[in-house]
Amino acid sequence: MAADEVDDADQIPFVARVADYAGTVLRPYGLRADRDGVPPQRVAEFADVKLLNHLAPKEFGGAALSRAADRRVHEILSGACLNTWLVWAQHAPIVGRLAKEYARGGDLSQRAHDALSGRLLVGAAISDVRRFPDHFVEATRVERGWRLNGTVSWFSGWGLNSAVFVAAVEPSSRTVITSLIPIDQHITAGVLGLSALGGSRTQRIHLSDAPVADADVISVQPLDEWRREDVDTVSDARPQHFGLAARVIDELRAEREPIAREIAERWAPRIAQIRADAYGLSDEAIAAGAGPHRTQERLAVKAASGEALSTLTRALLIARSGHGIGFDDTAQLHARSALFVLVQGQNADVRRAQLTHFLDTPHDPDTPTDPKDS
Questions:
Q1: Acyl-CoA dehydrogenase/oxidase N-terminal domain: from which residue to which, for each copy (predicted)?
Q2: Residue pLDDT, tens place only, 198-218
Q3: pTM higher than 0.90
């Protein structure tokens, strides 16, 4: 099973090093990271642990990890500190994308080679393509390149990353241009007040005539093709769901209240089943190739995962009573983190599946709970 392969990845030396780093450095700092922001030294630490290019080809110093091992790394980091994980998780898949282009023989820029070599932290600015034509970054063709204009709704790691991986749309041809460009005077940030993952340095950024040389373009593809690929990205419950769930279950198990420990033991098998279903369905979709594959089932699993996280984090907060809502307690941090997971990677289909999940309840609010009231 796919989930068993993820568990087996703990035996891989690279994964074990990540687990040690997450447990000794990230986890103890989690509350402070949420309050003060992910500190700059994390970037150097990522480089030392080889987390900046773990998906790069071996010739660039990559770790040659399987999909299962990569999932395990995401689980470990998200369970230790979700703010730090988000900054890193915006970067890591970009390196994987660049590695695929390199394998295809693509002519990559020096900046892309630096990312593959683990010499810089990249931020992602791609999700606004989902909102075209209502909101998007617009690409305009100019001599030997492009100009980008528009606002990126969410950009994590501002102040830590030195380049941005941006997807823009040329509206007349409905073409998506993806590029890797430097953060310079053409890109500015505005404060984005968040009640969850406020330490992730997530900002709203604006691109004003940002130049893109042809050499910095990673791909040019039809919008419909981009959207088909994006469906696979957003349809599944992902490793961060299960990293956070495992952390909360561990903390419930450590509570003095016996019923809190019982909740942990009752919910652990449920989380394990959701995790197995999510990874299994995702792998099926990858094996099936282009086109939708059991999408409704995958969305249902994602909705169930979000609901389980909400339940578990509420249980932990209740178990700690008034202490749980203090800024020095992880219960409130995990509860707010669960809210973030609910809306992360959300398109219209995901949102509909999540809301439909709330309709599937055994209690109709219009039905009296007491027979004598009927």
A1: 10-96
A2: 999 999 999 999 999 999 999
A3: yes
